[in-house]
Amino acid sequence: MATLSIKPGLRCTVSDWTSSNNEISVTAEHQRHLSHGIRLEGRALCNDTANKTMWDEYDSNRRLGDRISDITLWKKSLEACAEELDAEMDALTLTKEAAERALAATVLPLEVTNECLTLREGRRGNELVSDPVEAELKKEVEVIDKAQQVLQQCIEQAFKHLCLLQDARHQLTLDLQHKMEALDVDMSCLSLSVMSPEISLKPNPTRIPPGSTTPQQWVQFSHHNITQAKEEMQASLHLRENISITIAQVQNELESQRIASRFASRKRTHQLEQAQQELQWQIKTTQDEMNELKEDILRLERDVQSKMAPLKLVHTRLEYRTRRPGVDLCRDEVQYGLVEETKELASSILALKQKLAQAQDSLQALQLHEARMLEDLARKQEALSLEQRSMQTRQRLNSAPSESEPAAALPLTNSSGMHKLQLKYTDSA
Q1: Angstrom distance (rounded) from CA 273 to CA 265
Q2: Which residues form a coiled coil (predicted)?
């Protein structure tokens, strides 16, 4: 009889086998339960992450949109402020140019006034007087010098403030450029989607770039730029008003002094004309008197000569009567009459000679005074001619334009390249 070979080893019982089968079943059910729960959780997680991703992308897009709106609003504010600043720069430039024209307009009056003073220095003798005309002309020179200093100061102040406005405009321009670049970046980000071909993973995308600012700093920066620009514009407005007032005051002072100088010059010319006419009348009267005096001198000389013959006659008669002999040499009435006639003739001749000498002295005095008056008349005519030339010179002020061309300047463009400023000017005064 054959024997069966039995594999050696530990054999389990039926109960163990049953227990093992039950354990496998229970474990399978447990694993399936766990797997089912994981599947459900995975599906929920997928839904949650999909929803969260969608909402996060929506929030990011919304925040990008809000950020774009904020940047756009600030950009518009900066642009509006820049336009106002450009307009103020143009207005201040025009005011500065007006001050330069007013300064250039003082060159001709100063030149004319100095020329008038130089002309009046040509007066001679007692005509070289310190009259009101000279005082007014010197005062006019002082007024013009002061006006030039004030206008030059206004031009310098306008130039310095234009530089400040230029700096503020430069800050606004930089801020605008940054806003535009940031706006382009954020709009590009907003235009991206999961289907965009240019998206990719980046190394360390959550890093904080150097120089990053907070939203508060970002707002404060643009707000400071706008505030600074408005302050400079307000200061520029006040400066323009002050310069305009100064120009008006300077022009009024110059015109008032010009009128005063013209009035004094006309009054002095009238006085010189009156003095000249008076002197001419005196000269003519003196010459007439001299002519009459010369005739009287000739008459006196003739009278003196006419008395010599009667005197000779009396002397001869007296001499002849001394030859009477003896008792006939008598001091009779004839003798007394001849002696008295001799005395009368001698007295008449002496009186005529004295009067002739007085007449000759008077004629000499009149001739000397005539020469003096002629010399004084020549000086007065020369002074009057100089005064008239001075008034003719001042006529150039009436024919000259009220405002001269502005001084030569080198242009400077602002940060936008649209507006020209005067950085350098030539002081024509």
Answers
A1: 12
A2: 75-102, 276-303
Q: Nearest to residue 96, comparing CAs of 144, 152, 148?
A: 152
Question: What DSSP character marks residue 127?
Answer: G
Token pair of 61 as six digits:
């897009």
Beta strand segments in 64-129, E:
none
CB atoms < 10 A from the CB of 118, how many? 12
Domain that holds residue 47: 25-192+217-266
Q: pLDDT tens digit string along 89-135?
A: 999 999 999 999 999 999 999 999 999 899 888 888 888 888 898 89
> Is residue 276 domain-resident?
no
Cβ within 8 Å of residue 161, ≥6 positions away: 92, 232, 235, 236, 239
Domain assignment present for residue 184? The answer is: yes
| Alpha-helical segments (H) within 192-322 | 215-321
**CA atoms of 82 and 414, how far apart (whole Å):** 11
Q: Tell me 327's DSSP state.
A: G
Task: Kindly calculate the radius of gyration of the chain based on its CA atoms and give it in whole angstroms.
Answer: 61
The answer to whether 388 and 266 have CB atoms below 8 angstroms apart is no
Distance CA 233, CA 240 (A): 10
pLDDT recorded at residue 7: 55
Q: Considering its fold, how many domains does the chain have in total?
A: 1
The encoded tokens of residue 86 equal 């450009």
Backbone angles phi, psi at 406, to 5 degrees: -65, 160
| pLDDT value, residue 121 | 87
Residue 208 φ then ψ, to 5°: -95, 115
Whether residue 402 lies inside any domain: the answer is no
Between vectors from CA 39 to CA 37 and to CA 45, what angle results, nearest 5°?
Answer: 100
Question: What token pair was written down for 283?
Answer: 């000269």
Rounded Cα distance, 384 and 386, in Å:
5
DSSP for 174-204 reads HHHHHHHHHHHHHHHHHH--TT-TT----SS
Structural domain includes residue 315 = no
> Is residue 310 packed enough to be buried (19+ CB in 10 Å), middle (13-18) or exposed (0-12)?
middle
- Identify the bridge partners of residue 412 per DSSP, sorted by sequence position: 421
User: What's the pLDDT at 414?
Assistant: 38
Measured at the CA of 384, the angle between CA 142 and CA 392, to 5 degrees, comes to 60
CA-CA-CA-CA torsion sign (406, 411, 412, 413): positive
